[in-house]
Amino acid sequence: MKRTHRNRGFSIAEMMISSVVLVTVIAMSLNVMLTSAKISRNVIREYGNSNGSRHAADKILSEAQHAYAALSRVDVDGTVFTAHEDNTLIIAKYRTDASGTIVPNSRDLFIYQVITAGPRQQLWEIQAKQLDGMPAEGVSKKMVADNLRKFHYRLSRHETLSPVAGVYGSPMNLVSGEPSGNQARLTAINAPWKGKQIHDDSDSIYDFRVAIPYQDGLLPAELASIGMSRSGNNLSFSDADTSGRLDVLLEVDERYSSNAQDETRANELSCWIVTQQRDQRGVSELARSIEANLRNAK
Description:
With about 300 residues, the chain is of the alpha+beta class. Strands 8, 10, 11, 12, 15, 16 and 17 form a 7-stranded mixed β-sheet that branches. Strand 11 and strand 12 form a beta hairpin. The radius of gyration is 30 Å and the shape is flat. The chain starts with 11 loop residues before the first helix and ends in a 5-residue tail after the last strand.
């Protein structure tokens, strides 16, 4: 009688078919793993970029608080950097030795510049040192924020005005539009003894709906809302009250300097940094702003 073998093995053809199926499954699984890893790296990088905007704001704030001037221009290793409110900020600090003593006729420079890298914009910090009358020497250059959507700053001068003949006179020529040269634009007023104050960064509902406030200075209607008016360079209250001193903030031209050291007249800095961030919910904008007194400014 012929015996049936029920425990025979796979044929060569069956083994080849099984191997092809197994390789295909492994290849598909590997592709999914690589795609997931790529997505994870992109998410991590985007989170890093959002942290970079925070780092950039903190860095600018730290340097500005110890600065003695914002500069209109500077020559670093033969390259001239010119200040511009939308792409180039130049801050100067006194150089100090290991004991904290100021080194005479010398300064440290921090240049924050917007640079285009392919489809992206980045904010870079260029550090340099300079002796009086000499071109600056570059020390370091590093990126401080990636995926930059907007960089903007405003240089201002804070002044405390005392009344003379019933009015508060500005030490600079006031204009309604963008200041140029030795002009200034009035952007904030504080009269604490009257409980009156106004700032053009918060004088409109629109200012709270955008990353960077609409900067148009204080217009006549806005001055009138706190009982004030301007005639030329003079400010006055409608009730002729001059019983206290008036704090004002005057926007100055970041490209203008009247001295050989290229120092502007600013003693305050406002800066906005807007970056793009990506997370599991999609793409969004992250805005950061800083307000800093140039502590050592004259």
